[in-house]
Batch of 2 targets.
Target 1
Amino acid sequence: MTVPLFHLAIPVDDLEAGRAFYGELLGCPQGREDPGHWIDFDLRGHQLVLHKDSSGGKGAGVRMRNAVDGDAVPVPHFGLVLGWDEWHALADRLRGAGTDFVIEPHIRFEGKPGEQATMFFFDPAGNALEFKAFKDIGQLFAV
């Protein structure tokens, strides 16, 4: 079976800041680009495209926040489900880089179905990201 991959295009106000954030900080290999217009990144096999937004906007923006296990989760957001150790290594790298977390790295739904490590932060353009991990990936859709 072929695993389907997603394609996500997001607005950014500064392509070079996006290149540094996604390429250097998050370690996503860069693909094609049209200088001054867009840049492709390999987000773990998925295609993430940063499109230059010249309208003066700041990313996709947060339209709302939703209460989830005591946190005010920004919506919209996107991210990845990582392995447990990889998530902790990324959290440490982001802390070391001085990342301003919207929701600090922590364990959500502790002792309940769907227990997970989660963290939220913004890219330089204001797009909200969530990276999470499960000790037991079978809990991803647990009810």
Target 2
Amino acid sequence: MTAQTPRTTLTPDELGTLFLFEALDAEQLSWLAERGRVEVREASETVYAQGENATCFFVLLRGAVALSRLVHGDEIELGRTDQKGAYAGAVQAYLGDRVDQAYSHTMRAITEVEFFVLPAADFATAVRTWFPMALHLLEGMFLGTRASDVIVGERERLVALGSLTAGLTHELNNPAAAAVRATETLRDRVSKMRHKLALIADGRVDGTRLHQLVEMQDAAVRRAIGAPSLSAIEAADAEDELGDWLESAGIDNAWDVAPVLVSGGIDAEWLAEATDNLSEDNRRAAVGWLTYTVDTELLMGEIEDAVQRISGLVEAARQYSQLDRSAQQPVDVHELLDATLVMLQAKFPEGVRVVKEYDRGIPRVPAYGAELNQVWTNLIDNALAAMDGGGTLTLATWHDDAHVFVEVRDTGRGIDPDVRPRIFEPFFSTKPVGEGTGLGLDISYRIVVNKHGGDIRVASSPGDTRFRVSLPITTPAVEEPV
């Protein structure tokens, strides 16, 4: 038995079964059949690569292919298909030299595939000759859409950058201002401590007590580092008790000194024991020295907290932008959600409460982190707009054997049932004119469904709107068609 010889051409009748050519007449189908050829590519083979000269127009006859694009050094998969009649390649050949005639993406075979291949020049001739009116419409639509896409895309990027910048600068302002205030106060305290050191150098402070004073200072620092957090009532009681002791010991500004020492974990009992054998003058000097020491330690703690807060915000910005990540890798969904909340914090009205219902046991999912953050940004931003300044925003996560689920809920006005079927359409928006592009949910849908093989759905009633995103735990693959 001999092996079947692979076909190299299609008959006009076979071409007519493809949806792309079904409206052509017999003469046109014969013209295509004469100029086209059949090609077979093996699984994992690159059919064509991004940037190469676009020499051919490909129509899929059987098998499955994947399209990908290289963006900033990372290969991003655009989609997969096994639909008979799907086409790609030199689809813009009819525009001639008005556009760069290069493949805009890479096509790879997922399974063994078979194509009807038409040279780009013949495809361009067919379109120009057979469809002159359609050609003008296509040219206008392509060039006009490309120009509008550039404008809208720039606008979307500016809006996203503005949200990121506003959120980050707003959050950075508080710890930065706290660090500046603490530094200014610390400079004053250090100046006064230098004055005390000058007194010691001049011999005006009893040198025989210097060693004991240093030991007291070390002990005070240890207490300040481990000082417990006190409630307002507990702190007030401790300050009253210590202030009374300081007054009875003849300490100047006793009620200014007491709050500082209490914040450092120093109480009347400890201070009385530490200064028990000192003369009145030495006790005043010791208390003053300890106050500066504790105050300095507390100020350094404030600066450290502020710097750590700034570092945390920078880390959140890194998580949000995912600038240091490869195109796709396993990500922690909670880290992405938390980073998005930080970046959007400046947009949260005071009347909105955030609730997190996280399932800490969910696994990492293979994803494009920066693009998922764009999804969370769009959903959270819409939820805030729906609540009109007051309500509860809930972020919930859970999983099953195959998927991780993320749900964004709000207690806003809900989505009108009449418009709900259209909310994922491009350029459709329920916001007033000028307040939205109508692309947020369309972009979110394409990121979740087309890029990640997941799903996004909405359920809404007044006071309870839920956008549920499901993401596969393993990278989805296209099965070989039967």
